[in-house]
Amino acid sequence: MTVRRSLIAVTSAAFMALMPNVAQAAESYPDPRPLTGQQIIHDPTVIRLKSGGYAAYSTGGIIGARLSQDGRHWADAGNAFAEPPGWWYEYNDKADPWAPDISYRDGRYWLYYAVSSWGSNHSAIGVATSPSGLPGTWTDRGKVFSSERTDTWNAIDPAIITSHGRLWMSFGSYWSGIRMVELDPETGKAVQGATVHHLATRPDLPYAVEGPYIVKHGRHYYLFASYDACCSGVNSTYRIKVGRSTSVTGPYLDSTGKPMLEGGGDLVLEGHGRFIGTGGQSVFKDRGQDWLAYHYYDAEDNGTPKLGLNRLDWTKDGWPDVA
Q1: For the chain, what is the mean pLDDT?
Q2: The domain 12-322: what is its CATH number?
């Protein structure tokens, strides 16, 4: 799959009045790390495995898998699952999963993902576990959290973070933006009756923000999110913005103090040169170094979505800087 779901397809011109604060001049954006092998990917989540090497999972297939020994040469490794779990068909007639998130805790790997259909918030987030994190070893554990057409949020694009011994999941796409719920660390599923926290949105329809990812650095939590339109090849306007908070549930503010709930957010990375529509991001740690993983549309390869990896450094005042 080379498209991502959104409530309304929009053009870059529609957002000119909503330009974010610019944390890094466009002309200074670094290109992604040069990669070889199978680079085609969408909405990547990457992890360094305990056994050595790297795994990347993504939208496409039955959660598409890529493996690498050095983080530079990537090989197609099939799919996380041989067959889609039956309950997926309730949310998508092709059982098509989106935007996975991989993490490791309590001696096993956890893979969160979403099932939905384009333009609908009849959506659900599921979870699977694995002893190794490798494709073909995942056991599906069922539904974590869902949304219905009567809700003001969309239960897709999950991302997990632990804070002070409690487990949290950020999620969301369009509708009212980015949300968060607490999870039961034993089951990995939403706490019964969990409060749905609101983290970020846009001031006007169609609230084009999605794909949250939260990372802790120093005393702050940083909320990365994808803004504007994806899934249109070289016409995509996806870009990555960030805000921070001293609490995992917010409020998240940009470097000028503007809340992300009011459209704030510092620009981290946007399209430049051949690398169009940078977004669908996640962050992973490799031997103490943070890395930003994302997809871009290659203007020199007919807009094919590919894996972007950049080192993520931090400024003296504690803001992320793509290197």
Answers
A1: 92
A2: 2.115.10.20
